[in-house]
Amino acid sequence: MRTENDPLALRHFIAEHRRLFVLTGAGCSTDSGIPDYRDADGSWKRAQPVTYQAFMGEETTRKRYWARSLVGWRRFGHAQPNGTHHALVRLEQQGKLRLLMTQNVDGLHQRAGSRDVLDMHGRLDTVRCMGCEHRSPRQAFQQLLLSSNPAWAQLDAADAPDGDADLDGHDFSSFAVPPCPHCGGILKPDVVFFGENVPRERVAVAMQALDEADAMLVVGSSLMVFSGYRFAHAAAKAGKPIAAVNLGRTRADPLLQLKIQQPCAEALAFLSGDASTPRAEELA
Q1: pLDDT tens across 148-202, in order?
Q2: Could you give the residue numbers annotated as active site?
Q3: Tens of pLDDT along 8-20?
Q4: Contact at 8 Å (CB) between 127 and 137?
Q5: What is the pLDDT of residue 283?
Q6: C-alpha angle 17/20/21, rounded to 5°?
Q7: End-to-end distance of the chain based on CA atoms, in angstroms?
Q8: Residue 278's pLDDT is what?
Q9: d(Cα 22, Cα 187) in Å, to the nearest integer?
Q10: CB 99: neighbour CB atoms within 10 A?
Q11: Alpha-carbon separation of residue 170 from 56, 141, 152, 166, 207 (angstroms)
């Protein structure tokens, strides 16, 4: 692995490869005010997120989750794209992108203008009924949560990753979680929780795109979760070069051809200029 902080190295990598499979993670959205999960060594910064098994099996867990989400959604739902998102839009406009696959659930790539995006872990702005599969906007559910729990309307707390809020010490026993208005089922964010499998069809679409790409670019992900790491492993197995922009260790470090240890927006700033990404011969 070659580690550099010179953006010219990343320019070379992008210029030399015609079709990129881009995988993004939480580091893309920190400049939008959304905290990430892991430190520079890839370890958890806080308690691990709620698991699918606990959410589905325990009413107390659902009360705690939705109470914290009620508070956290106020800012998460209004987050705006940052320079990283806009730089990747530019990469798509230049025709360099085979697919942008994101592990994030914030929808900021689409809000910035990216079109060919695969939300590997789903979207937090949609609520899914686990009984009848009905889906509805998260903002509408926010209003239902507020009307069912008016005492929580003015409560505030520090932001946590993915629309969560730090409400440790609060009593959630009286918090009311509305059921699905269509069938009375359990409502869950339409995202893949820890302990839950990514739908097979999403994995298949991503693997097909990776197969058709000639290189992989990781932006803002430690790849500690297998759902992301497996694509780096597959790329390396297929002999495709991999570059990563990430502050700190990634699980795929031994597989990388190039690693840029800079903030994502800083490392990709050259993409946001008016000029197209130079060809490899222009950088020689």
Answers
A1: 999 888 876 666 666 666 667 678 899 999 999 999 999 999 999 999 999 999 9
A2: 121
A3: 899 999 999 999 9
A4: yes
A5: 42
A6: 150
A7: 21
A8: 45
A9: 31
A10: 20
A11: 21, 22, 11, 10, 43
For the stretch 118-158, pLDDT in tens is 999 999 999 999 999 999 999 999 999 999 999 888 876 66
Q: Determine the pLDDT at residue 92.
A: 96
Query: What single letter denotes the amino acid at residue 245?
Result: V
**Positions of E strands within the chain:** 2-4, 20-24, 97-102, 117-119, 122-129, 135-137, 159-160, 164-165, 187-191, 215-219, 242-245, 258-260
Question: Torsion angle, CA of 253/47/139/125, rounded to 10 degrees?
Answer: 20
DSSP state letter for 107: -
Torsion of CA 150, 151, 152, 156, to 10 degrees: 130
CB 256 within 8 A of CB 58: no
Q: Are 268 and 9 in contact (CB under 8 A)?
A: no
Rounded distance between C-alpha atoms, residue 201 and residue 21, angstroms: 17
Torsion of CA 215, 115, 264, 224, to 10 degrees: -70
Tell me the whole-structure pTM to 2 decimals: 0.89
Q: Which two tokens stand for residue 181?
A: 């208005």
Residue 226 has a CB neighbour count (10 Å cut-off) of: 11
The CA distance from 168 to 55, in Å, is 17
277 close to 94: Cβ distance less than 8 angstroms: yes
Collapsed DSSP state (helix, strand, coil) of residue 105? coil
Pairing of strands 159-160, 242-245: unpaired
Nearest Cα to 251, choosing from 231, 227, 225? 225
